[in-house]
Write a structure and sequence with these properties.
255 residues; 2 helices; 95% helix; 0% strand; rod-shaped; coiled coil
């Protein structure tokens, strides 16, 4: 949308520039046309002057021919009359062309005057419009500045509110995390205490068991020694017992 707006503004500016250039060209063309018309009037004026002089010369010749009383005078009068008529026609044509040129010059001057007045009015109107536009642009800029300032204040307040909310949330989260950590630490401590108590009980039980085992071992050692000694002595006793009956069985004979 912004790209379209910029393009449109550029197009308008370009057209305004072209219009200004065309207006300059038109003004120059009008001036040149007026100069050409003035030159045409001067040229026609010179033609009228020349034709008038020719007519006067022809009339002078005609008057001189009429004063002559010679046989050739009649022919000279006829020729002079023809020259006068021709010069008169040229003068009439030159005067008509001069009148037309003057009329055209007057029309061009009048049109240029109207165009000049129109251009002056347009220029004045454009200046007034530019002045009004400048005032409107200044007002719009001030309004936009005020709106931007208001929006900035609103944005700042919103950011401040959001920051406070985030800070409170962070504080709550920190408190929650701290409580959870404390609870976990207490749970861990209790678990460790329970494990330590269990380990102590197991160690105590193992120690008692080991002590009882050692005591039992110590008690069984003399019995085993006695049993071993008895076991060792048993064959000897048995051997002695075997020998002993043989001696006792030998009774003295009676006399």
């Amino acid at each position: 949308m912004a790209a379209r707006k910029t393009k449109a503004v550029n197009t308008v500016a370009q057209l305004e520039k072209q219009l200004s250039q065309l207006q300059d060209q038109l003004s120059k063309a009008r001036t040149a046309e007026e100069k050409d018309a003035a030159k045409t009037v001067d040229t026609q004026q010179k033609a009228v002057t020349k034709a008038t002089k020719t007519l006067q010369a022809a009339r002078t010749k005609l008057a001189a021919a009429k004063k002559k009383k010679t046989p050739a005078a009649a022919k000279q009068v006829t020729a002079a009359n023809a020259a006068v008529r021709k010069a008169q026609t040229e003068v009439t044509g030159a005067r008509a062309a001069l009148a037309e040129a003057k009329q055209q010059l007057a029309a061009i001057k009048s049109a240029n005057k109207v165009a000049s007045q129109h251009d002056a009015a347009m220029s004045k109107a454009q200046r007034e419009l530019a002045k009004k536009q400048k005032i409107a642009d200044r007002k719009a800029a001030a309004k936009a500045k005020a709106a931007a300032k208001k929006a900035a204040v609103k944005q700042k307040a919103a950011e401040k509110k959001a920051a406070a909310k985030a800070k409170l949330a962070a504080k709550k989260a920190a408190a929650k995390a701290k409580a959870a950590a404390k609870k976990a630490a207490a749970k861990q401590k209790a678990a460790e205490k329970k494990a330590a108590a269990k380990a102590r009980a197991a160690a105590k039980k193992a120690a008692a068991k080991a002590k009882a085992k050692t005591k039992a071992k110590k008690a069984s050692t003399p019995r085993k020694a006695k049993a071993t000694t008895a076991k060792r002595k048993a064959p000897a006793k048995r051997a002695a017992a075997k020998k002993a009956p043989a001696k006792r069985g030998r009774k003295p004979k009676a006399k």
